[in-house]
Design the sequence.
């Protein structure tokens, strides 16, 4: 059976994530040590016993979620599961970096440093209170896109995350996003709510962060991944290092085409998707996109063992 490994994005972070993996698997603990060394601080201590608000800061959440995902991947490897047992890897927003690291395109240390830069740059691109994001539930992507266009009125308002057939996130100037919420309700959305985020991700307001990532990525070596990576902004596989870099820059201001990415993998024969790392948000989205695809969360030692047994029988 063809399978894919996917990696979660921001919002999945919780205090304590990955600690049981680190306690159970030396290779998982080594990932957290490597991230701490790369950043020159004990991010693992914040992740395991710190303050939730501090962990939720974009500059901390992004490398911490990657570390947890890579720790789970190393635990799987310790149980005999290889990344090449997947036909594809993919990740939601920052999860794309986790996918690239899992597939050997980026070192863990470089990935941690890139995500620290990315998190800070995204946070600093727009003053607090200027931007916003909102989830529109019950509207398809084309309708949500037209809602965002109508709401813009000279400001920025874009469809930022195409998560599943009934969930699209819009991003941009706060007043424009608030208009989008009201327009969406009038268009028949089941719900339209502002999200508790610190910046308007994946829209044109993030251009300063895209510029920062272009400079940061120019300093980093990317290898060809051992498994094709389904890129967020293209919803199709990419393996060529220069192209990967270009798409990671584009991803900062571009839409996360998650629904199309999952549909692509399903169309390519994937019948099981493992969500590797913290939480189960992607699994819920995947089931709403394609009911024929089975999902499995792999974020604890028990889940790692069960996943390995399912593969190795």
Sequence:
């Amino acid at each position: 059976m063809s399978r894919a490994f996917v990696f979660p994005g921001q919002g999945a972070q919780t205090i304590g994530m990955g600690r049981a993996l680190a306690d159970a698997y030396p290779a998982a603990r080594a990932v957290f040590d490597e991230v701490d060394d790369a950043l020159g601080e004990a991010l693992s201590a914040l992740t395991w016993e710190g303050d939730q608000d501090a962990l939720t800061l974009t500059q901390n959440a992004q490398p911490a979620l990657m570390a947890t995902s890579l720790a789970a991947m190393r635990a799987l490897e310790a149980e005999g599961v290889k990344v090449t047992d997947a036909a594809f890897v993919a990740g939601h927003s920052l999860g794309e970096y986790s996918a690239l690291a899992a597939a050997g395109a980026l070192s863990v240390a470089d990935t941690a440093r890139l995500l620290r830069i990315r998190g800070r740059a995204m946070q600093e691109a727009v003053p607090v209170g200027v931007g916003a994001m909102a989830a529109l539930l019950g509207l398809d992507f084309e309708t949500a896109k037209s809602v965002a266009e109508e709401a813009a009125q000279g400001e920025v308002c874009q469809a930022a995350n195409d998560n599943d057939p009934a969930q699209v996130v819009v991003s941009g100037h706060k007043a424009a996003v608030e208009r989008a919420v009201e327009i969406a309700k009038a268009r028949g959305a089941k719900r339209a709510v502002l999200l508790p985020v610190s910046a308007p991700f994946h829209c044109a307001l993030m251009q300063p962060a895209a510029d920062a990532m272009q400079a940061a990525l120019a300093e980093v070596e990317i290898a060809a991944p051992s498994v094709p990576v389904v890129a967020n902004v293209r919803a199709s596989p990419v393996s060529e290092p220069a192209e990967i870099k270009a798409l990671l820059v584009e991803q900062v201001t571009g839409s996360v085409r998650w629904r199309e990415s999952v549909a692509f993998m399903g169309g390519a024969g994937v019948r099981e998707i493992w969500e590797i790392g913290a939480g189960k948000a992607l699994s819920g989205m995947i089931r709403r996109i394609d009911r024929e695809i089975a999902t499995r969360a792999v974020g604890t030692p028990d889940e790692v063992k069960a996943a390995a047994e399912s593969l190795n029988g």
The first helix runs from residue 19 to 24. The chain is about 50% helix and 15% strand.
